[in-house]
Amino acid sequence: MGKGSGFGKVILFGEHFVVHGVPGIVSAIDSTANAKVTRKNKTIEVKDERRGSKGYAEEKKIQQLESINRMLKKMKLDPETTGLNIWLGGSLPGFSGLGASAASSVAIARAIAGEFTLSFSDQEINDIAYEAEKAYAGNPSGIDNTAATFGGLLWFKKNLAGGSNTIEKLSLRKPVEIIIGSTGIVANTKAMVKGVAERKKANPQKYNPLFKKAEELAINARNAIHQFDLMKVGNLMDVNHSLLQEIGVSCKELDQLVETAKEQGAYGAKLTGGGGGGCMTALTPGEDLQEKVAKAIEKEGFQVLRTKIGIKRI
Length: 314
Ligand code: PMV
Fold this sequence. Notes:
Blueprint: E1 2-13, E2 24-41, E3 44-48, H1 56-74, E4 82-90, H2 100-115, H3 122-137, H4 143-150, E5 153-157, E6 166-170, E7 176-182, H5 189-202, H6 204-226, H7 230-246, H8 252-263, E8 268-272, E9 279-283, H9 287-299, E10 303-309
Parallel strand pairs: 3-4
Antiparallel strand pairs: 1-2, 2-4, 2-5, 5-6, 7-9, 7-10, 8-9
Helix pairs in contact: 1-2, 1-3, 2-3, 2-4, 3-4, 5-6, 6-7, 8-9
The chain binds (3R)-3-hydroxy-3-methyl-5-(phosphonooxy)pentanoic acid (PMV).
Protein backbone atom coordinates (compact mmCIF):
# COMPACT_ATOMS: atom_id res chain seq x y z
CA MET A 1 0.00 0.00 0.00
CA GLY A 2 1.20 3.55 -0.82
CA LYS A 3 0.42 6.49 1.46
CA GLY A 4 0.69 10.24 0.99
CA SER A 5 -0.56 13.58 2.22
CA GLY A 6 -0.95 17.16 0.98
CA PHE A 7 -1.44 20.43 2.89
CA GLY A 8 -4.57 22.52 2.89
CA LYS A 9 -4.00 26.19 2.17
CA VAL A 10 -5.43 29.61 2.54
CA ILE A 11 -4.73 32.30 -0.05
CA LEU A 12 -3.99 35.50 1.87
CA PHE A 13 -3.52 37.72 -1.16
CA GLY A 14 -4.14 37.53 -4.88
CA GLU A 15 -6.54 34.69 -5.75
CA HIS A 16 -7.81 35.03 -9.34
CA PHE A 17 -5.21 37.75 -10.04
CA VAL A 18 -2.47 35.05 -9.81
CA VAL A 19 -3.98 33.23 -12.79
CA HIS A 20 -2.98 36.27 -14.89
CA GLY A 21 0.60 36.57 -13.58
CA VAL A 22 0.05 38.85 -10.57
CA PRO A 23 1.96 37.62 -7.47
CA GLY A 24 0.01 36.00 -4.66
CA ILE A 25 0.70 35.00 -1.04
CA VAL A 26 -0.47 31.65 0.28
CA SER A 27 -0.10 29.85 3.59
CA ALA A 28 -0.42 26.14 4.25
CA ILE A 29 -2.63 25.32 7.23
CA ASP A 30 -2.24 22.56 9.79
CA SER A 31 -4.81 20.30 8.11
CA THR A 32 -3.98 17.74 5.46
CA ALA A 33 -5.67 15.48 2.94
CA ASN A 34 -4.38 11.93 3.28
CA ALA A 35 -4.50 9.13 0.71
CA LYS A 36 -3.91 5.39 0.67
CA VAL A 37 -3.59 3.53 -2.62
CA THR A 38 -3.53 -0.18 -3.46
CA ARG A 39 -3.40 -1.79 -6.88
CA LYS A 40 -6.30 -3.80 -8.29
CA ASN A 41 -7.59 -4.98 -11.66
CA LYS A 42 -8.38 -2.22 -14.16
CA THR A 43 -10.98 0.25 -12.79
CA ILE A 44 -10.31 3.11 -10.42
CA GLU A 45 -12.38 3.31 -7.27
CA VAL A 46 -12.29 6.21 -4.85
CA LYS A 47 -13.58 5.98 -1.30
CA ASP A 48 -13.79 9.60 -0.19
CA GLU A 49 -14.18 9.85 3.58
CA ARG A 50 -13.25 13.51 3.99
CA ARG A 51 -15.61 15.52 6.15
CA GLY A 52 -16.95 18.66 4.53
CA SER A 53 -19.70 20.53 2.82
CA LYS A 54 -22.65 18.37 1.93
CA GLY A 55 -22.53 17.45 -1.74
CA TYR A 56 -18.84 18.18 -2.13
CA ALA A 57 -17.85 14.62 -2.97
CA GLU A 58 -20.72 14.08 -5.45
CA GLU A 59 -20.23 17.39 -7.25
CA LYS A 60 -16.50 16.86 -7.62
CA LYS A 61 -16.59 13.13 -8.50
CA ILE A 62 -16.27 13.55 -12.29
CA GLN A 63 -13.51 16.15 -11.96
CA GLN A 64 -11.77 13.88 -9.43
CA LEU A 65 -11.67 10.91 -11.84
CA GLU A 66 -10.42 13.14 -14.66
CA SER A 67 -7.71 14.47 -12.33
CA ILE A 68 -6.55 10.95 -11.45
CA ASN A 69 -6.36 10.03 -15.16
CA ARG A 70 -4.28 13.13 -15.81
CA MET A 71 -1.92 12.26 -12.95
CA LEU A 72 -1.45 8.70 -14.16
CA LYS A 73 -0.52 9.92 -17.64
CA LYS A 74 1.97 12.40 -16.21
CA MET A 75 3.47 9.58 -14.10
CA LYS A 76 3.73 7.47 -17.29
CA LEU A 77 1.15 4.94 -16.05
CA ASP A 78 -1.63 3.90 -18.45
CA PRO A 79 -5.05 5.02 -17.13
CA GLU A 80 -6.73 2.35 -19.34
CA THR A 81 -4.97 -0.56 -17.66
CA THR A 82 -4.08 0.76 -14.20
CA GLY A 83 -6.58 -0.34 -11.55
CA LEU A 84 -6.54 1.43 -8.19
CA ASN A 85 -8.34 1.46 -4.88
CA ILE A 86 -7.96 4.99 -3.52
CA TRP A 87 -8.97 5.99 0.00
CA LEU A 88 -9.15 9.67 0.89
CA GLY A 89 -9.35 11.09 4.39
CA GLY A 90 -7.45 13.43 6.69
CA SER A 91 -8.23 16.48 8.77
CA LEU A 92 -8.77 18.94 5.88
CA PRO A 93 -12.49 19.56 5.41
CA GLY A 94 -13.86 19.44 1.87
CA PHE A 95 -14.87 23.13 2.00
CA SER A 96 -14.42 24.90 -1.35
CA GLY A 97 -11.57 27.41 -1.14
CA LEU A 98 -9.13 25.52 1.08
CA GLY A 99 -7.32 23.86 -1.77
CA ALA A 100 -8.96 20.54 -0.96
CA SER A 101 -8.63 19.36 -4.56
CA ALA A 102 -4.92 20.22 -4.76
CA ALA A 103 -4.20 18.71 -1.33
CA SER A 104 -5.94 15.49 -2.35
CA SER A 105 -4.07 15.41 -5.68
CA VAL A 106 -0.72 15.75 -3.91
CA ALA A 107 -1.76 13.04 -1.42
CA ILE A 108 -2.90 10.68 -4.19
CA ALA A 109 0.21 11.34 -6.34
CA ARG A 110 2.47 10.52 -3.36
CA ALA A 111 0.44 7.40 -2.53
CA ILE A 112 0.49 6.14 -6.14
CA ALA A 113 4.25 6.75 -6.25
CA GLY A 114 4.57 4.70 -3.04
CA GLU A 115 2.46 1.81 -4.34
CA PHE A 116 4.37 1.62 -7.64
CA THR A 117 7.76 2.34 -5.98
CA LEU A 118 8.33 5.36 -8.20
CA SER A 119 10.62 8.02 -6.87
CA PHE A 120 9.62 11.66 -7.41
CA SER A 121 11.07 14.86 -5.99
CA ASP A 122 8.70 17.40 -4.38
CA GLN A 123 8.97 19.52 -7.53
CA GLU A 124 7.92 16.52 -9.65
CA ILE A 125 4.98 15.81 -7.32
CA ASN A 126 4.06 19.50 -7.68
CA ASP A 127 4.10 19.19 -11.49
CA ILE A 128 1.94 16.04 -11.35
CA ALA A 129 -0.57 17.74 -9.02
CA TYR A 130 -0.65 20.75 -11.37
CA GLU A 131 -1.77 18.43 -14.18
CA ALA A 132 -4.49 17.11 -11.87
CA GLU A 133 -5.60 20.64 -10.94
CA LYS A 134 -6.47 21.33 -14.59
CA ALA A 135 -9.43 18.95 -14.18
CA TYR A 136 -10.81 21.09 -11.34
CA ALA A 137 -9.78 24.59 -12.32
CA GLY A 138 -9.44 24.64 -16.13
CA ASN A 139 -6.53 27.07 -16.27
CA PRO A 140 -5.07 26.99 -12.75
CA SER A 141 -2.30 29.30 -11.62
CA GLY A 142 -0.52 26.50 -9.76
CA ILE A 143 -0.64 28.30 -6.39
CA ASP A 144 -2.83 25.62 -4.75
CA ASN A 145 -0.73 22.60 -5.70
CA THR A 146 2.46 24.50 -4.77
CA ALA A 147 1.18 25.18 -1.25
CA ALA A 148 -0.21 21.62 -0.98
CA THR A 149 3.18 20.15 -1.92
CA PHE A 150 5.67 22.36 -0.08
CA GLY A 151 3.70 23.77 2.89
CA GLY A 152 4.78 26.96 4.72
CA LEU A 153 4.11 30.57 3.77
CA LEU A 154 4.86 31.25 0.11
CA TRP A 155 5.15 34.05 -2.43
CA PHE A 156 3.96 32.71 -5.78
CA LYS A 157 4.10 34.19 -9.26
CA LYS A 158 2.98 32.24 -12.30
CA ASN A 159 5.28 32.35 -15.30
CA LEU A 160 2.85 33.17 -18.11
CA ALA A 161 5.49 32.26 -20.72
CA GLY A 162 5.35 28.65 -19.51
CA GLY A 163 8.71 28.46 -17.69
CA SER A 164 9.17 27.82 -13.96
CA ASN A 165 6.95 29.76 -11.62
CA THR A 166 8.49 31.96 -8.91
CA ILE A 167 8.11 30.27 -5.53
CA GLU A 168 9.72 31.94 -2.50
CA LYS A 169 9.44 31.01 1.16
CA LEU A 170 8.31 33.92 3.36
CA SER A 171 8.71 33.93 7.09
CA LEU A 172 6.45 35.29 9.76
CA ARG A 173 8.04 36.08 13.15
CA LYS A 174 5.60 33.64 14.78
CA PRO A 175 2.47 31.78 13.67
CA VAL A 176 -0.70 33.90 13.80
CA GLU A 177 -4.28 32.78 14.45
CA ILE A 178 -6.82 33.00 11.67
CA ILE A 179 -10.30 31.63 11.21
CA ILE A 180 -11.78 30.21 8.05
CA GLY A 181 -15.53 30.48 7.70
CA SER A 182 -17.37 28.30 5.21
CA THR A 183 -20.47 29.56 3.40
CA GLY A 184 -21.38 25.89 2.88
CA ILE A 185 -21.86 26.66 -0.82
CA VAL A 186 -19.95 24.31 -3.12
CA ALA A 187 -18.29 26.65 -5.58
CA ASN A 188 -17.13 25.83 -9.10
CA THR A 189 -13.61 27.27 -9.32
CA LYS A 190 -13.37 26.48 -13.04
CA ALA A 191 -16.45 28.61 -13.82
CA MET A 192 -15.28 31.43 -11.52
CA VAL A 193 -11.82 31.56 -13.17
CA LYS A 194 -13.40 31.54 -16.64
CA GLY A 195 -15.81 34.33 -15.67
CA VAL A 196 -12.99 36.62 -14.54
CA ALA A 197 -11.00 35.97 -17.74
CA GLU A 198 -14.05 36.77 -19.89
CA ARG A 199 -14.94 39.95 -18.01
CA LYS A 200 -11.30 41.11 -18.06
CA LYS A 201 -11.16 40.62 -21.82
CA ALA A 202 -14.48 42.36 -22.40
CA ASN A 203 -13.72 45.34 -20.16
CA PRO A 204 -9.98 46.09 -19.98
CA GLN A 205 -10.59 49.74 -18.95
CA LYS A 206 -12.15 48.54 -15.71
CA TYR A 207 -10.07 45.42 -15.12
CA ASN A 208 -6.49 46.47 -15.97
CA PRO A 209 -6.27 49.08 -13.17
CA LEU A 210 -7.71 46.54 -10.70
CA PHE A 211 -5.01 44.05 -11.67
CA LYS A 212 -2.36 46.76 -11.24
CA LYS A 213 -3.74 47.47 -7.74
CA ALA A 214 -3.63 43.75 -6.89
CA GLU A 215 0.05 43.67 -7.84
CA GLU A 216 0.89 46.67 -5.60
CA LEU A 217 -1.17 45.11 -2.84
CA ALA A 218 0.81 41.84 -2.94
CA ILE A 219 4.11 43.73 -2.73
CA ASN A 220 2.88 45.84 0.22
CA ALA A 221 1.54 42.73 1.94
CA ARG A 222 4.87 40.98 1.56
CA ASN A 223 6.59 43.92 3.28
CA ALA A 224 3.99 44.04 6.06
CA ILE A 225 4.43 40.28 6.67
CA HIS A 226 8.20 40.76 6.77
CA GLN A 227 7.83 43.57 9.34
CA PHE A 228 5.22 41.56 11.31
CA ASP A 229 2.86 44.56 11.00
CA LEU A 230 -0.37 42.61 11.51
CA MET A 231 -2.63 45.70 11.45
CA LYS A 232 -1.26 46.53 8.02
CA VAL A 233 -1.64 42.93 6.84
CA GLY A 234 -5.29 43.06 8.00
CA ASN A 235 -5.97 46.37 6.25
CA LEU A 236 -4.51 45.01 3.04
CA MET A 237 -6.73 41.92 3.32
CA ASP A 238 -9.74 44.25 3.47
CA VAL A 239 -8.53 46.04 0.35
CA ASN A 240 -8.03 42.67 -1.33
CA HIS A 241 -11.64 41.72 -0.54
CA SER A 242 -12.95 44.88 -2.17
CA LEU A 243 -10.87 44.17 -5.30
CA LEU A 244 -12.36 40.66 -5.39
CA GLN A 245 -15.85 42.15 -5.07
CA GLU A 246 -15.07 44.45 -7.98
CA ILE A 247 -14.03 41.57 -10.25
CA GLY A 248 -17.30 39.83 -9.40
CA VAL A 249 -16.24 36.79 -7.38
CA SER A 250 -17.76 37.53 -3.97
CA CYS A 251 -21.34 36.73 -2.98
CA LYS A 252 -23.71 37.87 -0.26
CA GLU A 253 -22.82 35.04 2.15
CA LEU A 254 -19.09 35.81 1.82
CA ASP A 255 -19.73 39.53 2.34
CA GLN A 256 -21.84 38.70 5.40
CA LEU A 257 -19.05 36.58 6.94
CA VAL A 258 -16.49 39.30 6.21
CA GLU A 259 -18.73 41.91 7.86
CA THR A 260 -19.33 39.77 10.95
CA ALA A 261 -15.61 39.09 11.36
CA LYS A 262 -14.80 42.80 11.07
CA GLU A 263 -17.54 43.76 13.55
CA GLN A 264 -16.02 41.34 16.06
CA GLY A 265 -12.59 42.96 15.77
CA ALA A 266 -10.78 40.89 13.12
CA TYR A 267 -7.75 42.80 11.81
CA GLY A 268 -8.82 42.01 8.25
CA ALA A 269 -11.15 39.66 6.38
CA LYS A 270 -11.61 38.54 2.82
CA LEU A 271 -12.91 35.71 0.70
CA THR A 272 -10.27 33.09 0.04
CA GLY A 273 -9.93 30.83 -3.00
CA GLY A 274 -12.26 30.83 -5.97
CA GLY A 275 -15.18 32.68 -4.34
CA GLY A 276 -18.82 32.46 -5.46
CA GLY A 277 -19.35 30.53 -2.19
CA GLY A 278 -16.60 28.52 -0.57
CA CYS A 279 -14.70 30.23 2.24
CA MET A 280 -13.64 33.49 3.80
CA THR A 281 -10.69 34.03 6.11
CA ALA A 282 -10.08 36.56 8.87
CA LEU A 283 -6.87 37.58 10.60
CA THR A 284 -7.52 37.15 14.33
CA PRO A 285 -4.21 37.34 16.27
CA GLY A 286 -4.44 35.69 19.71
CA GLU A 287 -6.69 32.85 20.79
CA ASP A 288 -9.23 35.15 22.46
CA LEU A 289 -9.93 37.18 19.34
CA GLN A 290 -9.93 34.02 17.24
CA GLU A 291 -12.54 32.45 19.51
CA LYS A 292 -14.68 35.60 19.60
CA VAL A 293 -14.83 35.87 15.81
CA ALA A 294 -15.31 32.11 15.34
CA LYS A 295 -18.21 32.00 17.82
CA ALA A 296 -20.00 34.93 16.16
CA ILE A 297 -19.79 33.26 12.77
CA GLU A 298 -20.91 29.91 14.16
CA LYS A 299 -23.87 31.68 15.79
CA GLU A 300 -24.96 32.74 12.30
CA GLY A 301 -25.05 29.06 11.33
CA PHE A 302 -21.76 28.70 9.45
CA GLN A 303 -18.92 26.23 10.05
CA VAL A 304 -15.55 27.57 11.16
CA LEU A 305 -12.01 26.21 11.10
CA ARG A 306 -9.63 27.69 13.68
CA THR A 307 -6.05 27.54 12.44
CA LYS A 308 -2.82 29.51 12.03
CA ILE A 309 -0.74 30.95 9.22
CA GLY A 310 3.03 30.85 9.13
CA ILE A 311 3.39 27.42 10.72
CA LYS A 312 6.88 26.25 9.76
CA ARG A 313 6.38 22.77 8.37
CA ILE A 314 3.72 20.56 9.79
O1 PMV B 1 -11.02 27.67 -4.80
P1 PMV B 1 -9.66 27.11 -4.69
O2 PMV B 1 -9.25 26.72 -3.31
O3 PMV B 1 -9.40 26.01 -5.67
O4 PMV B 1 -8.62 28.30 -5.08
C1 PMV B 1 -8.56 28.77 -6.41
C2 PMV B 1 -7.60 29.92 -6.54
C3 PMV B 1 -7.73 30.70 -7.86
O5 PMV B 1 -6.80 31.77 -7.81
C4 PMV B 1 -9.12 31.28 -8.01
C5 PMV B 1 -7.45 29.84 -9.08
C6 PMV B 1 -5.99 29.52 -9.29
O6 PMV B 1 -5.72 28.59 -10.05
O7 PMV B 1 -5.12 30.20 -8.76
